[in-house]
Amino acid sequence: MPPRKPSTAEEISRLAAKMRVADPDRDNGDFASLTTNDAMSWLMGFGQIKEIDPKMKAARNPQELREMAVEKLRIALWDMQRFDYLFPDRVYSKTPNFKIARLESWPKWKEPHKEVRAGGMGTQKFDGFKDAERLNSYIMTHYNMMAFTQPELVQGLSMNPPKGPAGNWIGVKKIMGHAALDITGEGGRDTPFVVYFQRDILLIMEILDVKRVSWPEPGPKFFKHLQESQEVKFGTDPGAPLVPMMQTPKIPLVVVRYSYLEGRPKGGSQFTLHLESRLREILPPGTSNDKVRVELERHLSSGEEMAEEHLLMFARLLSHNADLVDKEWVEDQQSHWNIQKDVKSETRISFFTPCLRPRFRAVEEIETGKAPTPYTQCGACNKEAKKTMCGSCRAVCYCSPECAKANWPEHKADCKTSKKILNDPASLPKDTLYIPVRAFVPWVADFGFANEQEAVKMGGPVIAENPRNEYGTERFICRAILPNAGKAQWDPHQGKVVYYDRGGGTAVLWDRRRSIIVRLAPEEPPQALKSGIVIPFHDAGYQQFRQVLQKHGIQGQLLYVWVRRVGDCIEVDLKDIPDQRSIQWD
């Protein structure tokens, strides 16, 4: 194939003249043009919720309602970007003045890793000792595990975000993840900028730096568990220092100069000319102007296509983050010593962290206007009990050791409900499913303690430990998904959809706060037993659960069910099935 003929200066000018930078004072990538419906839609998309804080309904006029919605969106963006790590001693503020310059840069982030490409890690295999240093040089380290919840990964949403508000935030996380992979894969010297587009919308991000933010160090309990895990995984001696892959991963914070372009205005973009100068820095000396422009075109045209709503939302996220950054530092980055004045007017300095996921307690508060309160009622005398819990099942609170001792004869029957599953399943009530809440998630430890710590914060306990009961004796809703529940097919003889049994399958159930995430399958107990963890399996309940799921569930795979905490298990009601159309938490 003959080499591509370089574009002439006239052709470049003609193409540039079609590009328009959105008006900085009313930029479609900025909050200035955000409507009330936009803000509400995105808020609902964060947690897939259907209603937001009732107080907003009391707004006196449309303008006040919009201001309330936008402010809630800003708070939600602040919260979901883990700003307690970036701003450890500060509450949300409209002018936080984030000092990016104080963070250390990611070592060797400019070194390219050709084996890494957007969408995955390719065929790379890592050894805990030999490859730890190489893994830590990737700025996308642990991205997927930190950005997406286990249920989202099970459903494949990280690769194929759903349409509408529910998929907006997932789509933005996908863009950020791909950007992190692009930066890691090519390296800063080969790719000074990344491009995303949809029809005539273009988002260009010049990579200025990659900073890193440390996660909090593990407490004694986590540290002990990690040491035990690495003994199994790597054969280390008890009490040995953590191997590199089990140590604290860093959160990458990508600092960018970005331009959001929408439409094709006369005059072109000065930012693209600035990018030409960046390309000159990495191209061989003496490269002609035409070849530089061809290279620029190649970079621009090889960008990744993304859904328009995801691009627009990401642009607003960048705009939001730009408002957080230290203004003096930004001015220095945008001064005439670095770039031309015209480029300054077309761009902003911002950042993104490609490891974000909602804090579901915050989402619940946004929806209801009330902060979720933990269950703290003494199981014996009903007084306030904030500290003492049953040390075995963690399902009952007590105000004192005396109350715990007095309540034991009554609590004893429920405390070890999992033993009934193991020894006497026939004694369990009919039309119920019992699932032990202690977790067995074998891949968590493979990715370092930070994911384990997040598993506790975001849902799911430390391996083999029961999570704290947050609902007392009250029923609460869990979402259940069983992707391989059966193959649906229309049967003309029966006149209905019939689900043909495909054998077993792993179901995942979780509450809205992610205080509990349980896995259920015939294969789970044997797998857990290999690690010395006994998790009984309620076979009769599981079989009935699959039938209920096929009858009442969405496409026979997704179902909302009533559950309650009973000792070290959750009890799933298989008879009283909620109206799936009226569930407020979607």
UniProtKB/TrEMBL annotation:
Q: Name one GO molecular function term.
A: zinc ion binding
Q: Would the keyword Transcription turn up in this protein's UniProt record?
A: no
Alphabetized, the UniProt keywords read: Metal-binding, Zinc, Zinc-finger
What region holds the MYND-type domain? 378-415
- Family matches, as InterPro entries: Znf_MYND
Q: What is this protein called?
A: MYND-type domain-containing protein
Q: Tell me which species this is from.
A: Mycena belliarum
